[in-house]
Model the fold of this input.
Amino acid sequence: MRNTGLISLAYYYFDYKDSEKQHRRGLLSSLLLQLTARSDAFCDILDRLHLKCDMGLLQPSESDLIKCLEMVLALPGQGKVYIIMDAVDECPNNLGIPTSRQKVLKLVDDLVSLRHPHVRICVTSRPEIDIRSSLGHLTSHCVSLHDERGQRKDIIDYLKHVIVSDQNMAKWREEDKQLVVDTLAHKADGM
Done:
């Protein structure tokens, strides 16, 4: 559907290994680039921001990026827009007031509050208390994989596969292999 232009899709992964991908600014920039890449009307909005920033000599402020995204989402006559924010729990929640995570959660709240009927937002995260309390009132549908037996089974199957496939681990005693599987599966906490 995206390839035929019937929908717009933007995906962002908050990567715990990359500090540049743990903040609202990176999210906003990525969403705007993805959404504007396939639409002339969206691209016009981004062009106006580019002009405002002296043809790219200045960095846009986060508030400018937010306004730009809101204008993109408000354009009439467009198909459905899907925004996926993956691993929001990877945003730091310990530095700054507000923290990086609080800023991202506020952005989600603000985007949902726009109530655009064609915009769908999917947020994935571990069930951290601050995230659940910030997003709980916004969700129309919540799926938790943390307590699913199928997920635990997948983790155990993966661990067993790794142990059997690794030449060194394959030589271990069966009880040691089982201890590793049991310990890691228990400590994985659904991850």
User: Anything to note?
Assistant: The chain has a mean pLDDT of 88. Residues 9 and 166 are 38 Å apart (CA to CA). The domain at 7-138 is CATH 3.30.370.10 (Barnase; Chain D). The first helix runs from residue 24 to 36.
